[in-house]
Amino acid sequence: xxxxxxxxxxxxxxxxxxxxxxxxxxxxxxxxxxxxxxxxxxxxxxxxxxxxxxxxxxxxxxxxxxxxxxxxxxxxxxxxxxxxxxxxxxxxxxxxxxxxxxxxxxxxxxxxxx
Amino acid sequence: xxxxxxxxxxxxxxxxxxxxxxxxxxxxxxxxxxxxxxxxxxxxxxxxxxxxxxxxxxxxxxxxxxxxxxxxxxxxxxxxxxxxxxxxxxxxxxxxxxxxxxxxxxxxxxxxxx
DNA sequence: CTCACGGCTATACATTTTGATAGTACGGGT
DNA sequence: ACCCGTACTATCAAAATGTATAGCCGTGAG
Lengths: 114, 114
What we know:
By secondary structure, chain A is α+β, with helices and mostly antiparallel strands. Chain A has helices at residues 4-21, 26-33, 40-46, 52-64, 86-89, 92-110, and strands at 38-39, 68-73, 79-84. The radius of gyration of chain A is 18 Å and the shape is globular. The interface between A and B is large, with 37 and 37 residues.
């Protein structure tokens, strides 16, 4: 008994986490940045189908959530670099786990016979 | 070099995984079912704010993706039980990881001073 | 003068997801 | 005849998310 409150807290934790890394692009962007610092244009090319509008939005959200760092170089033409923060780096465990699960899932689906 | 194709494949893996467990409710529902078999009404009560419509939809999707099992007992009043399949069970690693990360993230946000 | 570069931003629109509200089906109890 | 409980289902509306298309900024090359 008495685990209700804990359960609820855990649930909120997960929900909160999902608000930060949920959505179609967030984790995919993070995965690219986990490979190293990238510029806007590089990300744009690396993400087939994303519009600059979306990319900007997602990056700004990630930035304000403290997951990525945005560095502007006052040059012309402009140069902006994006990199993961320490917290962003700690997401590697999740993306790895997710990828591992995704692989296993695909295997299963392939040989499925429930 | 030559890692482009692999990267792309990994990315698709993650995206595919997100299609199955993405969204506002899926993982939260799974978390409840990972605690044990539950009935529709129980889930409804356990998920504050979800509408029966949403709950039904999400459960059906999870079912058709092979993550949960739906068992109907031909009684009146009706009784339907939901439980995780073996694949669903394998998601525990992810929900745990996510919760762990969420906790750490909250800590960070709390004491933030970038 | 004009155009290109890089990183956006503006505007308008389409699609997808989520929500509120109410109703259905079924047999059993009163 | 009427209501109850259980698990939905239908209809409509709103909100979140995504897309298409075009343009801005300043400077240096042509």
